[in-house]
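Why do we care about 3D structure at all? Because function follows from shape, and shape follows, mostly, from sequence. That is the central idea of this module. The next example makes it concrete: a single protein chain, its amino acid sequence, and then its structure expressed as tokens.
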Amino acid sequence: MAGYKIIFEDDSILVVDKPAGMLTVPTPKKERHTLSFLLNAYPGHRLDRETSGLILLARNRQIQQVLMDAFKEKRVKKRYLALVQGKLERKNATISRPVRDNPYSLAKHAITQYRLLEERKGFSVVEVIPFTGRTNQIRIHFKQIGHPLVGERRFAFAKDFPIKFRRTALHCADLEFEHPVTKKEMSFHCDLPMDMQDFLMTHPP
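And the structure:
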């Protein structure tokens, strides 16, 4: 697993490119190799362990609350790139369905918009914009429409699909938000990580 990369930092916030395989915060097992522990910072939101890309963290609890409120009020824009199994029937669509992260949680309404970028043999490359911030929303929504993410193992059976990948093929590529202190509009981008780039190279159109 490659290390994280700090894209931006000041006295209030950090924007970090998180590698796939790294936890954002410790689980009940109290792991130390997590982004929040290593940076001594507080996440304004979370990315799954397997998801790579941009994540916003705060230097202190007060700033963290400001960031969390901004996410809750949908004032932060996130854009993901994903690889999904199969050929999508619709090139542009909005998925509006309840999601449930586990059998014991309540189903919550969620909205995800996607746009087809490219079709390849057996899978599709899509741009994804979540309008709500439910846990595992993107993964669950694409499973619900019959096109789980390439590498998905929790919400779909990988053996049922011919295209294989070592992790869930999901990357947070863009992040836009208002700085919690300066109120300046901030915008960041990070390219696909090498594992997804290599996968696309070995699976040409």
